[in-house]
What does this fold into?
Amino acid sequence: MAEVKRDQRECRRYLGGKAPWGRTVGDAGKLVTVPEQQVALMRMRKLRAAGASLRAISDKMKPGSVSITHQGVKNALAAVNRPASG
It folds into this structure.
């Protein structure tokens, strides 16, 4: 099993679980970016860098048709700062 996982990582395939916000699992098992969510993610990062709270960011995303909770904002921003696992 470890050998299979190692091979999957070398092929840059996603190894499971829920895909990070802003990405989805494509046909070849690789993470593919979702352009609309990537734009929203950049906006969230700018708001956070400007000192906005997670709840304020969540509220500011709603008029742009992005429904995300403050916890979702926290998770999305954390995933951006985490190295890719696949």
In short: Residues 2-81 form one domain.
